Amino acid sequence: MKTGMTCLAALMAMTGAAAADIKIGATLSETGPAGALGDPQAKTLKLLIEEINAAGGINGEKISLVVYDDGGDPNKARTFATRLVEEDEVNAIIGGTTSGTSMAIIPVVEEAEIPFISLAGAIEIIDPVKHWVFKTPHTDRMACAKIFEDMKKRGITKIGMISSTDGFGSSMRKQCLGIVNEYGIEVLADENYGPQDADMTPQLTNIRGKDSVQAILNPGFGQGAAVVTRNVVQLGIKIPLYESHGVASQGYIDLAGPEASEGVRLPGTALLVGDLLSDSDPQKPVVAAYKALFEGATGAPVGTFGGYAHDAVRILADAIKRAGSAEPKAIRDAIETTKGLVGTTGTVTMSPQDHLGFDLSAFKMLEIRKGHWTIVE
């Protein structure tokens, strides 16, 4: 029964189990290529649910949490989602650290009629709208648009792309190619790499060979994106490098190195630049509270991906409170009517036509300077 369950997850499963009336399940990529994303998500879920239970629960009911580690494997994610539904009998599911695992979970929750909040970026997760599926991160199409807006401001009209072949990279590549012409930008080179590849210099050499290329865009996440960043510097490529929101964490800077990542731009969330927000920004206190909770408990820097889990828990808790019920249908209906909920990623207002709940304005264009995040705009 506990095969594939980490020790941390086992402890999570026991949190409030004796008196719990609400059961939340999760399948996350705590290990594997997306471990840097999934591990803080698992820790965030545990911390927030402990906090909610310590304050009396939701409408007087305590929450228990069951978490499985799918290692980034879509087949395992599907298996664990089925287990959460059939054996653990959860009221809702949070998870799908990656786009690939999220897409594998969707058929399970749609058939079982269990609300699911994804923590992954692909637009296909919520477009077209699926009755039981929601998500917290910006879509990859939104990330492309934010990047192309910035390129246009800088007078960049010709680029090279190098994309990861995993679910996230493939989806974002498709979305970027679908809208790039709207910004007057031409893709002169279109390369790719596998998520486990350790050297992308051949692909980057091909891009460098295009004399008119003015910038490089890398739709990818995790270790592969850090390798691309280091290889760009090793090859002496001086043109601007744009990464995706899939690397919006201190972990990326640490993997790539402060020197290699210097000047890299990417779309990110308020969470990474909380100290730079104005006091009037409604996200500032939310970001500060989560930062204090996570960093105080773990000693690790807060990051975007844990923030996605934070927002999912807040959306779910708000929905259950407003619904006055933990029945899956009641939760689903209440999530869909979420209005003005301030999270670390944006202010969420959902509808039957929108299961994400915010627009491009929730994104900030960030640039890395001396190993730290700065706001471009």
From TrEMBL:
<feature type="signal peptide">
    <location>
        <begin position="1"/>
        <end position="20"/>
    </location>
</feature>
<dbReference type="InterPro" id="IPR028082">
    <property type="entry name" value="Peripla_BP_I"/>
</dbReference>
<dbReference type="InterPro" id="IPR000709">
    <property type="entry name" value="Leu_Ile_Val-bd"/>
</dbReference>
<dbReference type="Pfam" id="PF13458">
    <property type="entry name" value="Peripla_BP_6"/>
</dbReference>
<comment type="similarity">
    <text>Belongs to the leucine-binding protein family.</text>
</comment>
<dbReference type="InterPro" id="IPR051010">
    <property type="entry name" value="BCAA_transport"/>
</dbReference>
<protein>
    <submittedName>
        <fullName>ABC transporter substrate-binding protein</fullName>
    </submittedName>
</protein>
<keyword id="KW-0813">Transport</keyword>
<dbReference type="InterPro" id="IPR028081">
    <property type="entry name" value="Leu-bd"/>
</dbReference>
<feature type="domain" description="Leucine-binding protein">
    <location>
        <begin position="22"/>
        <end position="355"/>
    </location>
</feature>
<keyword id="KW-0732">Signal</keyword>
<keyword id="KW-0029">Amino-acid transport</keyword>
